[in-house]
Amino acid sequence: MRVSEAFLGTMGFGREWGWGADVDECREIFTAYAEAGGNVIDTANRYTEGASERIVGELVGADRDRFVIATKYTLTMDGSDPNASGNHRKNLRRSVEDSLRRLGTDYIDLLWVHIWDAHTPAEETMRALDDLVRSGKVLYLGVSDAPAWSTSRANTLAELRGWTPFAGLQLNYSLVERGIERELLPMAEALGLSVAAWAPLARGVLSGKYTRHGATEGSRIKLDDISERDLRIAAEVDAVADDLGVTSSQVALAWTRSRHRWIHPIIGARTHEQLKDSLAALEVELPPEAVLRLEAAAVFDLGFPQDFIAMAREFVYGPAVNDFEPRR
Q1: Where are the domains of the chain?
Q2: Which Pfam families does the record cross-reference, listed alphabetically (predicted)?
């Protein structure tokens, strides 16, 4: 399936959570994204308590087949019912049927498992997902917010048993949150999985609105809740942006794409202007020295065993390890 470089995130489509966009603003955002060539609309059953899916379905309308609609299941829609959440077969069936009704469509292009569920065996989840693919109600599968070991095990089960594997991951990734570089990104590269990066602006921290202007009205987080470390990283993003003559948001988004082209930032916007600024990041090519400068400001430890393996490299292979290129 062919997807655009950036995905449109619709977590803020609807005012039910108090900070999103109304329907008219959503229409402007959607139209601008589509006119720029974007084709992936990312939503979830729980986003704005179902309003996001309803708005997406209305906006896509008669052009349904031109768009890749991605939605999610796992999160509860009824906290009093123990079977209304999780990755088991019953919740999957109900969630997908409800999403199809809200979206006004008879199939979902990409269904994400929203988060790892320790209470459901992987075999049950993968078989139930495969049944949906075989029924035609879902075309492709992905998994969000799950450990690398659980994803690789699930795809191994699918490969061995002839079930549909996960084709992509949805993960939190930004200069502020680089943890997926430890296990998840290497796994994605080894298994050929694409990555959809959520919160690439770290919920606005890397947009410049806190470091340049202070917190703005309608922000999801308060300035006092942002750590000194994160503000230092944001200030370095601002400095690189000033040097390049672009905005802070564009630098932060361009960085997420600098490591691999198969990492797709999910662009969320509450206004048409925010979306236009983010889309312009696709034209920004960060110089290598700028990438190094940003990563030096956002340095973090890979931890064990990655740091130990790197430290022991010459001890393991001998000096000859420096004479050959690693397999890619």
Answers
A1: 7-296
A2: Aldo_ket_red
